[in-house]
């Protein structure tokens, strides 16, 4: 029995040290079934204000009943968003926004906020485990769009976001696990 104890302990230590990088946590924040920023952009740009219908947006993958992270905007939301101050004159607004505001209760909108973000911790396993040093690489994309409707007619659309997210977080705690003691 004792002959097996030493090799098992040695095997465990070898596996622990050889696979240290794979023991670090990784996470994925995926709020859409769309594969890329370009795919999301194309689904919005296909809409032609004053010609396209709501069902075209839903066929492009943006149905609030089935797709997460779509906020339905009321006419009051549209007023707050596009008339935030007296500095903007009504005449300066896009004709689609004006049409929506004038439609009152028939004015609706969608605010779409989607992303695919991967967070991967890399670096030394033991320095990460004992909180001395942590490196996190964040990659992916973020997309947002606003589409306004009068009844089911698209009257306005706009989009934006970050086609490529590439960030690095470095946290260094010289005292390691003792860093947070004492407030």
Descriptors for this entry?
5 strands; 183 residues; 6 helices; alpha+beta
Describe the structure in your own words:
The protein is α+β, with helices and mostly antiparallel strands. The protein has one domain (26-171). It is 29% helix and 34% strand. The chain has helices spanning 2-18, 37-45, 54-59, 75-82, 95-102, 125-129, and strands spanning 26-30, 70-73, 107-122, 133-150, 153-172. Strands 1, 2, 3, 4 and 5 form a five-stranded antiparallel beta sheet that branches. A hairpin with a 2-residue loop joins strand 4 and strand 5. The longest helix has 17 residues, at 2-18. It starts with a helix and ends in an 11-residue tail after the last strand. The relative contact order is 0.19. The model has no long low-confidence stretch (mean pLDDT 81).
């Amino acid at each position: 029995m004792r002959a097996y104890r030493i090799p098992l302990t040695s095997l465990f230590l070898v596996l622990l040290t050889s696979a240290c990088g794979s023991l670090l946590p990784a996470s994925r924040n995926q709020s859409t079934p769309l594969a890329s920023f370009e795919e999301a952009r194309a689904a919005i740009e296909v809409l032609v204000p004053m010609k396209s219908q709501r069902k075209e947006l839903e066929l492009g993958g943006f149905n609030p009943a089935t797709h997460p992270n779509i906020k339905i905007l009321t006419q009051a939301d549209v007023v707050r968003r596009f008339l935030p101050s007296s500095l903007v004159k009504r005449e300066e607004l896009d004709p689609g926004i004006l049409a929506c505001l004038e439609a009152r209760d028939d004015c609706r909108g969608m605010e779409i906020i989607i992303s695919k973000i991967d967070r991967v911790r890399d670096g030394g396993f033991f320095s990460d485990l004992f909180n001395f040093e942590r490196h996190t690489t964040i990659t992916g994309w973020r997309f947002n769009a606003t589409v306004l409707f009068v009844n089911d007619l698209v009257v306005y659309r706009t989009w934006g976001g970050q086609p490529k997210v590439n960030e690095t977080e470095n946290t260094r705690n010289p005292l390691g696990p003792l860093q947070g003691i004492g407030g």
